[in-house]
Amino acid sequence: MSGGTDGSGRDDRLHGERRIPAPRAPADDRAYLPAPPVVPQLSHKVLTSLLGAWALAACSAEETAAVEEHLTSCAPCADEALRLRDAVGLLHTDGSLDLDPMLRARVLESCLSRRPARIPVPSWAAPYDTETARLDALLRDIGSPEWHAPVRLKWFDGERQTGRKTTVAGVIGHLTAVDGLVSTALGLDDPLGCGDKPLSPTERTETYWSAAYRPPTRAVREPWRDQSHTLVRTVSFAGRSVSELSVPYGDFALPLTDSLLERAFECWVHAGDIADAVDYPYEPPAAAHLHRMIDLAVRLLPATLAGRRRAGLAGAARHLVTAGSPGRSLHLEVEGRGGGDWYIALDSPAAVGSPGHTVAQVALDGVEFCRLVAGHVPPVEAAAGQEGDREAISDVLFAAASLSRL
């Protein structure tokens, strides 16, 4: 197709079908139209900045005329204007977009992996930062009625699986209450206002649920989100000086680095509970974050196993641990996402990470192991592969499930 000029000296051959002329009225009506707006002389930079407003029809008449005048002579801006106009079409809600349900999760994951912040989040706080952001994206997508959808929280009480009924809003209240342990350790405001009174995670949750906040509604989202942002911002500015700060959990304590990892794990687990309740797809954490969550659970297992032994819930230690003999161990082989190999001490809570005398091996998928630790899978159904001392295998699987709680 040959090109030409429009009388003003502009050549439309540069644009072809992508040229965006200003709309014109029929010839018979032009005599009755008001005078066209005066076209202001604006720089290319200013005109480019107006393209988004133009696509949304938010420019003044003069700005609209200037933008449309510019689009007939600037190919890059014409291309960008067409893209923006197409994007604006997606904002209309009168039609089904039929988008991939995992699109938001993939976009969010991509955003979180790009461009480091000016004040970077410490690597040990990154799992918590990521999991709270993913959960917040899920909460943003659900409607008001879904905040009251029933959710059954599950955990292992030492010998059997148990649970508690609540709602989506109740789950967020639970996360707010337990995250308050970290807030208090950092000297921040406690959402329960308990001050120096020590409360376990379960006690804090029951206090929250029985207080004036009941029944929780979608109003719990903002305080929970603000609290998580404050925690991440505080540790980011404090840096290494707070990494070994102790966070009390009632009958035990964790250093801040492990505590935020534990909070990331619980945030993911309960996000999955919410997603199941509202029929929403939800992916496991990134492989590197999942590996660190698994490692934390494995590090806690020897002491948990020793506690179960004292309570008569596990077999007795069979080997005297000395400096030259670390005792028996179980080889845990975690497959798939976040996988790796760990050796769990069976005879001493102090002997961690040493193969010792391996008497058993257990193979588990990474996500399935985390579901066991969360109390969502019965120990007798957890392991995909087992070999060796059956009592040692049973003791470790039950100890893993015993790490769960409300």
Condensed summary:
This protein is of the alpha+beta class and 406 residues long. Helix content is 43%, strand content 12%.
Can you tell me about this structure?
The strands form three sheets. A four-stranded mixed sheet has the order 6-5-7-8. The protein has a two-stranded antiparallel sheet with strand order 1-2. The chain has 406 residues and is an alpha+beta fold. Helix 6 packs antiparallel against helix 9, helix 6 packs parallel to helix 10 and helix 11 packs across helix 12. The N terminus is likely disordered. The protein is 43% helix and 12% strand. It folds into three domains: 78 residues, no CATH class; 181 residues, dinb family like domain (Four Helix Bundle (Hemerythrin (Met), subunit A)), CATH 1.20.120; 115 residues, Nonspecific Lipid-transfer Protein, Chain A, CATH 3.30.1050. The protein has 13 helices and eight strands.
Q: Please, what is the average pLDDT?
A: 83
Biggest β-sheet strands, sense, barrel: 4 strands, mixed
Gyration radius, in Å: 30 Å
Discrete helix count: 13
Query: Spatial order of the strands in the main sheet?
Result: 6-5-7-8
CATH superfamily descriptor of the largest domain: dinb family like domain
First-last Cα distance:
72 Å
Q: Can you count the beta strands?
A: 8
Helix content: 40-55%
Structural class by sheet pairing and helices? alpha+beta
Number of domains: 3
What is the name of the CATH topology of the largest domain?
Four Helix Bundle (Hemerythrin (Met), subunit A)
* Top-tier CATH class of the largest domain: Mainly Alpha
Global geometry:
elongated
List segments where confidence is low: pLDDT < 50 over at least 5 consecutive residues.
Answer: 1-33
Could you say what the CATH architecture of the largest domain is? Up-down Bundle
Along the chain, the helix and strand elements come as: HHHHHHEEHHHEEHHEEEHEH
The proportion of residues in beta strands is 5-15%
